[in-house]
Design brief:
Layout lengths: L1 H19 L11 E6 L2 E2 L1 E3 L4 E8 L14 E2 L2 E4 L5 E3 L7 E2 L3 E6 L5 E14 L1
Parallel strand pairs: 4-10
Antiparallel strand pairs: 1-2, 1-6, 3-4, 5-8, 7-9, 9-10
Length: 125
């Protein structure tokens, strides 16, 4: 009887150890760390998924940092987790900076939608 209980205990411990080792949960991380167009860093609101920038006018029809292909251009986006995916990828596919959306999907499949809204200030600073 003692041998049988010992054998059951040993098997239980081995099964328990086997289920713990080597299996890592997939990341739920779907946040953007930086969003940059040219030399301009955009503000990221992680709670709302809104990415914004106000281009300030410095002279007649002059907005420093405004991309040449305005409003369509690519951006340099850095993700918190390199295993996450962006669709469509603004690092590759031009997006409309005036109002466009894309989705970051975490390794575990959790999506988060981000919306870009850049505007041009019409008042000269």
């Amino acid at each position: 009887m003692k041998m049988r209980l010992l054998a059951i205990a040993l098997v239980s411990v081995m099964v328990g150890l086997g289920s713990c080792g080597g299996k890592k949960d997939k990341s739920k991380e779907n946040e953007i760390v930086t969003f940059k167009v040219g030399t301009v860093d955009y503000q990221i609101n992680h709670a709302t998924g809104l990415i914004t920038h106000l281009y300030k006018k410095t002279g007649e029809n002059t907005w420093p940092g405004l991309p040449s292909g305005w409003p369509k251009t690519t951006a340099v986006v850095t993700l918190k987790d390199l295993k996450a995916r962006i669709s469509p990828d603004p690092n590759v596919t031009p997006i409309n900076l005036e109002n466009d959306s894309f989705t970051v999907t975490a390794e575990d499949g959790t999506p988060k939608t981000y919306t870009v809204k850049a505007t041009r200030d019409l008042d000269v600073n």
